[in-house]
Design goal:
This protein is an alpha+beta fold. It contains 9 helices and 7 strands. Strand 5 and strand 6 form a beta hairpin. It starts with 5 loop residues before the first helix and ends in a 10-residue tail after the last strand.
Length: about 220
């Protein structure tokens, strides 16, 4: 199976900021390019951090503590320091949490979840910025056509990997939901088939209605 990688899904033309980029210019970069965050890089194009809309909005939050007539939570010391920042290096969330181009969607999504970030700068072997991948980019695998998902399951999972005959298992795919029907030689194959189908890009769920032609608990004649 050929899983799409971060390199396949990332944005290649990345808008960058420098450590000394001023607050207002960062706001203009986000607005002009219709983006919600910008990586901050050094002179060698190594990501140092990321400035997001949330980082910039802390300045508004700080102002609201004195100007607002409603009760708002007080900023922590580190949040107030960012709110008072005027340049990218003072505003950014650092260090940058980065991904590699060869990573799978699962690897990138897991890092986003663990580090609670919405996007990852993508770096090469020299740690230079090559792209950026967001949650929305990773979700694009679920836009795969049903027929492409079905073809991959039939060809790569059932025939090439498991060596099943075309008549053994039928595959239906509707909006990424896979339904399997048929029978296989042993019951031990069923969870393997389900797991491999789940691993196909674009699969939302797998429902297996499979029987077995041989009781997996019995010893096969001629074997110990």
């Amino acid at each position: 199976m050929q899983h799409r990688t971060v390199a396949d899904l990332m944005t290649h033309g990345v808008v960058r900021a420098r450590p000394d980029t001023p607050f207002k210019e960062i706001v203009e970069l986000l607005a002009d390019n219709d983006i919600t965050a910008v990586p901050v890089v050094d002179e060698l194009d190594h990501p140092l951090g990321v400035v997001s809309e949330a980082d910039l909005l802390r300045k508004c939050t700080a102002q609201s503590e004195t100007l607002s007539r409603t009760s708002v939570p007080h900023l922590e010391a580190w949040e107030r320091a960012k709110a008072e920042g005027a340049r990218a290096e003072e505003l950014m969330s650092a260090p940058a949490v980065c991904a590699r181009p060869e990573w799978t969607v699962v690897e990138a999504a897991r890092l986003m979840a663990v580090r609670n970030v919405k996007r990852l700068p993508v770096i090469d072997e020299a740690d230079r910025l090559k792209g950026i991948v967001s949650r929305g980019d990773l979700l694009r695998i679920f836009l795969r056509r049903d027929d492409a998902i079905r073809d991959e399951i039939v060809r790569d999972v059932l025939q090439r990997t498991l060596r099943l005959a075309p008549s053994d298992v039928t595959v239906e795919v509707d909006e990424g939901q896979v339904t399997l029907r048929g029978s296989v030689e042993a019951s031990s194959l069923i969870p393997i088939i389900e797991r491999l189908c789940h691993n196909v890009d674009g699969v939302v769920s797998v429902s297996a209605h499979l029987g077995c032609r041989v009781d997996g608990s019995r010893t096969t004649p001629g074997r110990v």
